[in-house]
Design goal:
235 residues, Rossmann fold, 8 strands, P-loop_NTPase, AAA_dom, DNA_Partitioning_ATPase
Length: 235
């Protein structure tokens, strides 16, 4: 149970995809009522899930915070999404936001947040999160971005670092080993890398979630997400 924040200060590392698959695991496999929130005004969660919302400028997270009418969209059985309307969250919303989150916690077993540091919600998300998952690339810039982020958050909340879209290069292996040494000292789980697979790209194109596929080649990827949840749930 709780709030899981998927976050990296660097864009393009697959936060949205990882958020959706993490949430879908609890919804599909564990039958837990799970809500996804985002601070990404593009609302790509909807595109990945193949769900259309005609107008994302209203009835979303901002209206919910302000106590106005809002609409939580059902993506799949047990899996729901509250979209971002797109305008900047006001600092005066802080307390209202916390109250709104407490209301959602009563309704949902898990809240998984696709965190982007652009809409004024970043610090609030970090504050309310029970657990933090950090996607990364195995390169110089992203690796050091992760290490910098770890200096600014409560390490007790950080449950996993997840290398994403990885090939088989020697340099990537070196960065993986480097991160493994750094994180093992801090007691943070470094997952096996999620490889760059054409099969995953095909799922995205077909608006199919990982857990909806029976392809055996994806069992390894599913195992990575399961291992992340084991860290979160302390199993």
């Amino acid at each position: 149970m709780g709030i899981i924040l998927v976050k990296n200060n660097k864009g393009g590392v697959g936060k949205t995809y990882i958020t959706l698959q993490l949430a879908a695991y609890k919804a599909f496999i564990k039958d837990r009522k799970t809500l996804i929130l985002t601070s990404d005004s593009q609302n790509d969660i909807l595109k990945f899930a193949g769900v259309k919302v005609d107008d994302t400028s209203k009835f979303g997270l901002e209206d919910f915070i302000e106590g106005k009418s809002y609409k939580i969209k059902k993506l799949r059985e047990n899996l729901f999404f509250l979209h971002l309307q797109g305008y900047k969250i006001k600092n005066s919303f802080n307390e209202s936001f916390k109250k709104a989150i407490n209301i959602l916690k009563e309704e949902f077993d898990y809240i998984v947040i696709d965190g982007s540091p652009v809409m004024g919600l970043d610090n609030l998300f970090i504050e309310i999160a029970d657990h933090i998952v950090i996607p990364t690339f195995l390169d110089n810039i992203t690796t050091h971005s992760v290490l910098s982020m770890l200096k600014k958050v409560d390490l007790n909340k950080v449950k996993a670092i997840v290398p994403n879209r990885i090939g088989r290069t020697k340099l990537e292996k070196e960065y993986y080993d480097f991160l493994n040494k750094k994180l093992s000292v801090q007691g943070i789980h470094l997952s096996f890398p999620i490889p760059q697979l054409g099969l995953i790209s095909k799922l995205i194109d077909n608006e199919t979630l990982l857990w909806e596929s029976k392809a055996q080649k994806l069992d390894y990827i599913k195992g990575i997400f399961i291992s992340i949840w084991r860290e979160i749930d302390n199993e």
